């Protein structure tokens, strides 16, 4: 199983990791290079807390974090815990996930209507 965590604001990537109160966790089950099951879960935090988001990464065994701006200490911590961090991303969660699943998502990408800007 693969898990992706995305701090969100409405249906967009939150601009800042440390100010997000909603977090989308996407669980994917792959068989023969095909997704056979997908579960999307939104976790709502009481208040913005980068530490709480980092705990979610550990508790849910997240493989990849896709986010907007993130402070170095949290970026380093998440990588140390084994999560891939793709940061400075802007766009809707749908557009970002399409690019991620296609293997095209890179740090610093701005996606509008499914296409890099």
Unreliable spans are: none
**Percentage of helical residues?**
10-25%
Class by SSE composition: alpha/beta
Structurally, the number of domains stands at 1
The total of beta strands comes to: 8
CATH class term? Alpha Beta
Principal-axes geometry comes out as globular
Assign the CATH superfamily. Answer: Dinitrogenase iron-molybdenum cofactor biosynthesis domain
What is the succession of H and E elements?
EEEEHEHEHEE
Which sheet architecture does the biggest sheet show? Answer: 6 strands, mixed
Task: Determine the strand fraction and express it as a percent band.
Answer: 35-45%
Distance between the termini: 31 Å
User: What integer is the average pLDDT?
Assistant: 95
The count of helical stretches stands at 3
**What is the CA-atom radius of gyration, in angstroms?**
13 Å
CATH architecture: 2-Layer Sandwich
CATH topology: Nucleotidyltransferase, domain 5
